[in-house]
């Protein structure tokens, strides 16, 4: 089985001297199929040190499931070297809270800033897109949030109410991702359009465009250019992050196919599920980063959709984490990313990624 070969190769390397891994191709060696009574490809058989069969499994069996099975069988193989985690940021975050985006924790450029006044203080966002991502996950106060939001005039940084700004809407040259510039007057927007091109939109039209594509798990607004493609029961939807993409299987109860990209290199990663389990990962070496934050009481919580991702190899994950010194969390298997979502109740799925009331962190 093509899928199992790299899993077994990895175990053979990482547990050398502790685990004997033998790979038998029954097409080339049919006698072995009889000897081990193989009915299905692939089959994994677990033997004790004295050669007694302890357990057998038919079908794809992930690295994590194999290691968990050995633990269940009472066999201690020692630590798994293929892990990576960081629980303390590699550098201090010295930015002013007013310069950190409420949604993505990214920097806020002065001519892109969106600020929402709330009774609990101001909420700052890096872009109209992340403002609409926030709008799409509010469970209350949507109208008052919109009425109290202002965006920087792209020309001079002066704050304008979002509902009265004139928007110049265009596309990034290479990605096709929308670009949005806000202006206080139609005249100023037209002046920029004569240089940069694009279309003039009012707030209502921009709102409809921004809220049209949604995450199939948490219902957040997404740009398809940023999102994972999810095919569930033949229907195409999006995952706003790689973990949400897996969550579509939990929300719909359907088998899904996820097309995601390595966050470091952009290389494709394809995951298929069957009845709530991962049945194939391409490439099979792919792993997930589970971004988490440690709360003052020491417990850990998800760092949110902007801090998750899939990688084609553990090495890519490590490089990406090292290039992002503020990220904290751990490497997990893609099966585990799915299992986290499958464990949620329908009520928890309903509440996933939602913001109950608009307030600063
Ligand atoms: Zn942001
Ligand atoms: Zn989502």
CATH class of the largest domain: Alpha Beta
CATH topology of the largest domain: Beta-Lactamase
Q: What is the tally of helical segments? A: 11
- Beta content comes to 25-35%
Helix content: 25-40%
Unreliable stretches: 357-361
Count the beta strands. 19
Structural class: alpha+beta
In this entry the ligands are: zinc ion
**Integer-rounded radius of gyration:** 24 Å
Order of helices and strands: HHEEHEEEHHEEEEHEHEEHEEEEEEHEHH
Under the CATH scheme, the architecture of the largest domain is 2-Layer Sandwich
Count of distinct structural domains: 3
Question: What's the SSE blueprint?
Answer:
Blueprint (H helix, E strand, L loop, with lengths): L3 H11 L15 H6 L7 E5 L5 E6 L4 H10 L12 E2 L27 E5 L2 E5 L2 H9 L5 H6 L1 E4 L6 E3 L4 E6 L6 E6 L2 H11 L2 E3 L1 H8 L17 E5 L2 E5 L2 H11 L3 E6 L6 E7 L2 E6 L4 E8 L5 E3 L6 E3 L2 H10 L5 E4 L1 H9 L3 H6 L10
Antiparallel strand pairs: 1-2, 3-19, 4-5, 4-6, 6-7, 8-9, 8-10, 11-12, 11-13, 13-14, 14-15, 16-17, 16-18, 16-19
Bound molecules: zinc ion (2 copies).
Concise overview:
This protein has 361 residues and is an alpha+beta fold.
Would you write up a description of this structure?
- The chain is an alpha+beta fold and 361 residues long.
- The protein folds into three domains: 4-72, Glutaredoxin (3-Layer(aba) Sandwich); 97-210, no CATH class; 214-351, Beta-Lactamase.
- The protein is built from eleven helices and 19 strands.
- Strands 3, 16, 17, 18 and 19 form a five-stranded antiparallel β-sheet that branches. It has a five-stranded antiparallel β-sheet with strand order 12-11-13-14-15, covered by helices on one side. The chain has a four-stranded antiparallel β-sheet with strand order 5-4-6-7.
- 31% of the residues are buried.
- The chain binds zinc ion (2 copies).
- One zinc ion is lined by residues 215, 217-218, 220, 240-241, 244, 305, 353.
